Amino acid sequence: MDESTGTETPAEGVEYDSYEDAPSEYTTESPEASEASFLAQPVATGPAAGTGRRKQAIARVRIVPGTGKWTINGRTLEQYFPNKVQQQTVNEPFVLLGLEGQFDVIVRVNGGGTTGQAGALRLGISRALQFANIEHRPALKKAGFLTRDARVPERKKAGLKKARKAPQYSKR
């Protein structure tokens, strides 16, 4: 180290035009690290899976490239969700990305009611699509399909009939 300027001198036998050209032993940038981060992105071209939850419902979803066939607990989409609004809800990720009819969907869903199951299924499909192609993530994220709705029923308290409903008050 040069005492007068407080800078390091280059190693013997090596000459640099300036100190900016000299490699620093403290740098975190290396060509290998930048290439490794690019290669570390998951890209799945085959089947993909995702889990979705909403209220008390849990949906385990597998998507496989195919013709758009739905199997929910062994039934079709129309049989399992006769309500058109719920059918639209579970189809939203495919419609957003323009992938209708390109994936077969296999689902095991349990717990909760039909609305909670439809919401859980939408989240599971969105997560599976994101895993299938990471480029789908920004659109799904912006639409709010990757956000888990954390609202769950409040627990029952001791001495109450439900979470907040108390027995009728009697003065005498």
From TrEMBL:
Signal peptide: none annotated. Residues 1-54, 151-172 are annotated as: Disordered. InterPro entries: Ribosomal_Su5_D2-typ_SF, Ribosomal_uS9, Ribosomal_uS9_bac/plastid, Ribosomal_uS9_CS, Ribsml_uS5_D2-typ_fold_subgr. GO terms for cellular component: cytoplasm; small ribosomal subunit. GO terms for molecular function: RNA binding; structural constituent of ribosome. Residues 158-172 have a biased composition (Basic residues). One of its GO terms (biological process) is translation. Keywords: Ribonucleoprotein, Ribosomal protein. Residues 14-23 have a biased composition (Acidic residues). It comes from the Bacteria. Pfam families: Ribosomal_S9 (PF00380). HAMAP family: Ribosomal_uS9_B. Belongs to the universal ribosomal protein uS9 family. PANTHER family: RIBOSOMAL PROTEIN S9, SMALL RIBOSOMAL SUBUNIT PROTEIN US9M. This is Small ribosomal subunit protein uS9. It comes from Actinomadura rudentiformis. The lineage of its organism: Bacteria, Bacillati, Actinomycetota, Actinomycetes, Streptosporangiales. The gene is rpsI.
